[in-house]
Amino acid sequence: MVDDELKKANAEFGKVIEHLKEEFSTIRTGRVNAGLFSGVMVNYYGAPTPLQQLASITVAESRVAIVTPFDKGAIDAAVKGLQESDLGVNPSREGDIIRVIMPELTQERRKEYVKLAKTRAEEAKVSLRSVRHKAIDAIDKLIKDKEIGEDDGKRGKETIDKDIKKFSEQIDTGLGKKEAEILEV
């Protein structure tokens, strides 16, 4: 029974880490990546649609992305969606493709992105603590209901504490890597 709670908690810890990785991929560094475009919405025939569902996005150079809409009729809508996004880009249409040149990051903007990354990492740690709290409550309930012994409960809680420390270190490592990427000129 304790093992079931530990498995649930570890699965939730893993989801928190995966979500943080997705969040980090949306934070711009000096290089372009397709994850930057995950928040771009396009008005496609009256319905707001994510750009990544309408087009393939490839990285041509460190600061240049090529957006190729699957439906050639969606090119103008994709250009407009990119212009209205918070990326601060001015895309140019070249036939059936859209070339997106990302502007150089200023030092001030890099510092803002580092703050954003730290905020996202702290939110992930809060989520880890929430999962830990739920798991410990579940173990306490098992002890109270006499489904497990005190010793098993104590071992389960210690295991959860070791696991949360391990996942918290993964967050710190990921944050350090992201900071280095952002500050790299």
Q: Concise description?
A:
Helices cover 59% and strands 16% of the residues.
Number of strands: 6
Query: In whole angstroms, how far apart are the ends?
Result: 51 Å
* Mean of residue pLDDT values: 89
Secondary structure: helix percent: 55-70%
Q: Could you tell me the CATH topology label of the largest domain.
A: Topoisomerase I, Chain A, domain 4
H/E element order: HEEHEEHEEHH
CATH homologous superfamily annotation of the largest domain: Ribosome-recycling factor
Q: Number of helical runs? A: 5
Major beta sheet summary: 4 strands, antiparallel
How many domains, as an integer? 2
What portion of residues belong to β-strands? 15-25%
Anisotropy-based shape: elongated
Class per helix and strand makeup: alpha+beta
Strand order of the largest sheet: 3-4-6-5
- Low-pLDDT runs: none
Q: What's the CATH class label of the largest domain?
A: Mainly Alpha
CATH architecture name of the largest domain: Orthogonal Bundle
Radius of gyration: 22 Å
Polypeptide structure, described:
The protein folds into 2 domains: 2-26 and 106-183, Ribosome-recycling factor (Topoisomerase I, Chain A, domain 4), CATH 1.10.132; 34-101, Gyrase A, domain 2, CATH 3.30.1360.40. The model has no long low-confidence stretch (mean pLDDT 89). It is of the alpha+beta class and 185 residues long. It is 59% helix and 16% strand. Strands 3-4-6-5 form a 4-stranded antiparallel β-sheet. Helix 1 packs parallel to helix 5.
Key features of this structure:
single chain, 185 residues, alpha+beta, Topoisomerase I, Chain A, domain 4, Gyrase A, domain 2, four-stranded antiparallel sheet
